[in-house]
Amino acid sequence: MVEIVLEVAAGVAIVTVVVPVVIILLVARQRWWQTIGGKDILLALLENPILVSASISFKANPEKKFSASDESSPERSKWVYIFQKEYATVDPAHVDFVGTDEATTCVGLVIRNQKNGMTSVAHMDSPKIVEMGLSQMLSSLVDSSLETEFDVHLVGGFEEVSLQHSNGSTVSESAAYLDGYSFPLCSKIVHTLWSRDEKFHIRTICVLGHNTRRDSDGNTYPFFNGFVVETASGIVIPAIFDRISRCPDELVRRIRVSASYEDANWNEKLLETYDCGSDCFKIAPCYWTLRQYHIALSLLNYSDSEILSMCSTSPTAEAPDFVDNLRRQWIYLIEHPHWTETFPTKQPRTFARSSDGRWIRC
């Protein structure tokens, strides 16, 4: 392999071959570095042959399936699962795998400290949370050394815009890139990485076109909706989790995703979920208003197809249990309209790992 340094010349993002190993995003210190947009950086990375090859290799891996019912012995794998808009930083001494799934237009971001293997994973759902979210992730990864370098993987997002419009007209591949939800999010992520002081080695960028498949009618779908990081090695592979493995506190954590947009405490932030030092889940409190209660009452009256079209950014690409998961959340909100029932005294909901690897409420 060769090392590719993403630089800037005359205001245009270029890619230059330098020395062996990986891809590095370096910050240009000239005053005009801010004129370079995330779109230019992203397109350069997506077209880089080394990263194209890495995406192909990622997709060639079999999808690892996680189910909490499959293992009940003390030797079972220990994993940390991340929902939409959450992040977690894990220590390989405590955790074997960290990952997420259910991503369609969202993007999973992995940042791994090359020196100690500490790994942070986020499930990004909006450009608005990227800058603060990256700061949250890196705050738990940076050690005392100023020379720390980080491996980065981006997985998820797809070309949710079909190449065939409903009116029969077609759009080009490039136009499909620039439309939709995934491209602005990916663009914001790479630009924010590029603008920071840290040194990031881009290992995988399986997003957008690299993560898109099409059916015979031109409808688009993600190749993969999830992944895990094997913490000991840093290897990233496709993955899928069943309902009971998306734990602990699955339903409350799902509700936090939508409720957090009304909670100023989480404005432009990722949701805090897991404490690395204690290997405990600490589901940070999030309040919801009676507005959520009334919305839940209303939405439960709609059909499955109506819910899918109203509540998803990619209705044709969602998992079969997407609507059922929403209905379960709405029922919970109707039964618990006051958030203090779920978070008494505004304290986190804490779960510790038992001797057999399962999570127990503290």
- Tally of helical segments: 9
Largest sheet at a glance? 9 strands, mixed
Total domains, how many? 1
Rg (C-alpha, Å): 21 Å
CATH domain class: Alpha Beta
Order of helices and strands: EEEHHEEEEEEHEHHEEEEEHEEEHHHEE
Beta-strand proportion: 25-35%
User: Which fold name corresponds to the CATH topology?
Assistant: 60s Ribosomal Protein L30, Chain: A
Distance between the termini: 48 Å
- Unreliably modeled segments: 1-22, 27-33, 163-176
Mean pLDDT: 87
Structural category is alpha+beta
Report the strand count: 20
**What's the arrangement of strands in the largest beta sheet?**
2-1-3-11-10-8-9-6-16
Question: Which features characterize this protein?
Answer:
362 residues; alpha+beta; 60s Ribosomal Protein L30, Chain: A; nine-stranded mixed beta sheet; five-stranded mixed beta sheet; 9 helices; globular; disordered N terminus; transmembrane helix
Architecture overview:
Residues 1-22, 27-33 and 163-176 have low confidence and may be disordered. With 362 residues, the protein is of the alpha+beta class. The longest helix is centred in the middle third of the chain and has 14 residues, at 182-195. The chain has one domain (4-242, 270-286, 349-357): 60s Ribosomal Protein L30, Chain: A (2-Layer Sandwich), CATH 3.30.1330.200. The strands form 4 sheets. Strands 2-1-3-11-10-8-9-6-16 form a 9-stranded mixed sheet, sandwiched between helices. The protein has a 5-stranded mixed sheet with strand order 4-15-14-7-5, with no helix packed on it. A 4-stranded antiparallel sheet has the order 17-18-19-20, with no helix packed on it. A hairpin with a 2-residue loop joins β1 and β2. The chain has helices at 38-47, 49-60, 130-139, 173-178, 182-195, 250-259, 290-299, 304-311, 322-335, and strands at 4-9, 12-17, 23-25, 64-66, 79-82, 86-90, 97-100, 107-113, 119-124, 149-156, 199-207, 212-214, 220-222, 227-230, 235-241, 271-272, 274-275, 280-283, 349-353, 359-361. The chain contains 9 helices and 20 strands. The chain crosses the membrane at residues 6-28.
